[in-house]
Amino acid sequence: MRPPKTGLPALQKAASGCKACDLWKHATQTIFGEGPANATIMLIGEQPGDIEDKLGHPFIGPAGKLLDEALRESGIDRTRVYVTNVVKHFKWSPSERGKRRIHKKSRYQEIKACRPWLDAELAVVRPKVLVCLGASAAQSLLGRNFSVTRQRGQIVKSPLAPRVLATVHPSSILRAQDDESRQSEMRAFVDDLKKVAALVQENP
Prior knowledge:
By secondary structure, this protein is an alpha/beta fold. It is 42% helix and 13% strand. The chain has helices at 8-15, 50-55, 62-74, 108-125, 135-142, 148-151, 170-174, 179-202; strands at 41-45, 81-85, 92-94, 101-103, 129-133, 163-167. A hairpin with a 6-residue loop joins strand 3 (92-94) and strand 4 (101-103).
């Protein structure tokens, strides 16, 4: 399925019926990006999670709440940011115990199948600053050799947007071993987002 050359509402409607890969068979629904079409900042993660899949919106689960907190601390208004994922369906496997659905990493072919939707979002929004959240998003957009560990917060030349950089995915902060590590990683994440806020102010 090829995205229509039109605005975000039509893209979202078209994406709801996408069957370009097999992920739709086990997902509740397509989770398209959300935010204003004239957003200056676009945040791109890997894929929606369990809560997003059930409720139909991106970044509303635990990682999304942490992202909201980090955006507030960095002085960025989430309502003026466009948030999306490189893959629009939740990929999961059942837990060995109970009914939990465990996140599974997206494969290259699944990311490739979803890329036309992301390209269509970029074409409409045309953000001034694009932020890749986590290794999966960064490597799918900036190349397989990109390392978030080594290159986080650095401006990368890319045709995708005037300013492109990568940082960690907020879910990685939730997986920190202890409170001290979590607080340290949160501060570093907020610092990255403050850099994004500064870039916007430099190039309003």
